[in-house]
Queue: 4 jobs
Job 1
Amino acid sequence: MVTGGNAIRGTRVGSGPMGEQDHGFHADRIAVSYWDALGNETVRYFAAGLPDEEIPETIDHPQSGLPAGRDKENPPELAKNEPYKTHLAYVKERRTEDEAEELLEDALRQRRERRGQS
């Protein structure tokens, strides 16, 4: 038995003749370079007709993870990470000790009333 080649192996159905380069219309685009604080460059492509204010000023660099900006001489600095705060820490920022005592007393009073323990 002779095994023959399969002409469609590895191709998608409806993909057209092999080697065909023109698979449709390619929109005009512009290349925008971004640099991180380490000097790494990455390029993003945007539609040529896109207004400049819609092109982001900063992105996250895909390799370093640092913020990258469009100005090579002045790349954005890494923002300081805030330490993790618990829910209680956020509540303490919004309430004084006196307010906390008042709220606690009010909640306990309401609970006692519901239980009939005035």
Job 2
Amino acid sequence: MPRTKQFNEEEILNKAMELFWEKGFHATSIQNLVSCLGINRASLYDTFGGKEELFNKVFEHYRKTNGDAIRSTFDQEKSVKAGFCRLFEEAIEKTQVDAARKGCFVVNTTTELIPGDETIHNVLRKNKENLENIFIDQIKKGVETGEIDASKEAESIGPMFFTLLSGLQVIAKVDPDPIKLRELVKAGLSVLD
């Protein structure tokens, strides 16, 4: 008779994500995962495959969760500009409570595994395109409502905002001063004026 799983898969993915985020892919061992997740090696391999397969599932889980959170941020605001302000303010607030200065999981993964891992490279490219498209769509929405001037090129500004968000999280690892970070964001968002 097959054994039933005695754990919540989403909870395991969240715990594994925190571990990979803190230590990185290469520095995280199978024993680290077994200890952190509270499951035995057989269950880990049976459910997720090896370390690389688990990492890929964790990264996809993060990508979906993060994309949903960004969409939700925009949905909760009455204006596009307010949505971008809130998005960047939330990013700054996260840097202030990140005592370990882990930074951004996507940025960390990019710098650790690229070049060299074509599978994760494709996933990172999709993540970049997805977030840029969210930003582009929001800017176009602002143009349609008249909040943003029609001369603003959404296809250029959206990728710039993705770069600003990623860079902000890198800079915050070195200098998390919220005043300086807000000044960077204010300068970046001024392109919408």
Job 3
Amino acid sequence: MLFKIKSYLFFLWRSTNQHGVHSPFVYNLVTKCFYDRDKKASYVSITSIYKNNASEISLKNLKLLNRLIGYLKYKKILITKNSSSFIGKVLSVDNFTTIYYSPEDLDQFDFIYLDIDQFKKHPGLLDILLSKTHNDSLLLLNSINKSKENQNIWQQLHNHPKTKVTIDIYNLGFVFFRKEQEKEHFVIRV
């Protein structure tokens, strides 16, 4: 419990809003997607799905993930086997996507959702998943600040040579591979 409190206070100290972002791609993502407060028709379904499933992801972040898919126009989504299957339901509400549950299903994915604890169980998983990404793919991890071990995994991903843009919103970590961008890390309050 003490670790979580310290971790969150450190996050708040380091974090910024859209005014601290100097990347046009990230600025637009934050202002047009992360901070989009318009009520969406999909939120009723998402709330219903949330109430029927135990989740480490808040309802607020589930709505964000649903908006993210529409904003980035992702179609091919991988939800790894050990992750909550209800995430696929949330992502597909009002988005025209195909949800896959195995990396072997396709050569490349637009969006990969992964429970960060899977890296602890499967050390070679990162290389497999990175081979399934393209320039505009997103690797999204949950619980990045839940423990010191999770923070270390997140730091390794942040420092990986293939990653270009990482965004920490405390509970979720976004990893983009955009070759046209300089390597940057953002800590954003959502």
Job 4
Amino acid sequence: MQPVNLFHLASQQAEWLSARQAAVAGNVANANTPGYRAVDVEPFEKVLERTGVSLTATQDGHFGARASEVNFRSRDDDRTTAILPSENTVVMEQELMKAGEVGRSFEMNTAIVKAFHRMMLMSVR
């Protein structure tokens, strides 16, 4: 098992969140464009897999389920792609939910980095 550099991981997630925010903003901007197809970035879990980091349940009850039952839901599972009369696939409700999710994720990322930064500063004093 390799050590996980939390600050590098947080930086990767922030970059991914920026890309997702740009994709959502582009979808919202083109909501009235005839024939526009909504886009999204690949889930962050796949980005983690490429870097060798994976989310794993280590104990029973971790993530609210038994370790053997943990199954991370793909973002594609809850996406319904309705095609509107203009042949546009942007659904504003979904895009606004994604925008809220991105905002909450940015806040959580920042809070975690801030907490670990404070902890590191306290340890060097």
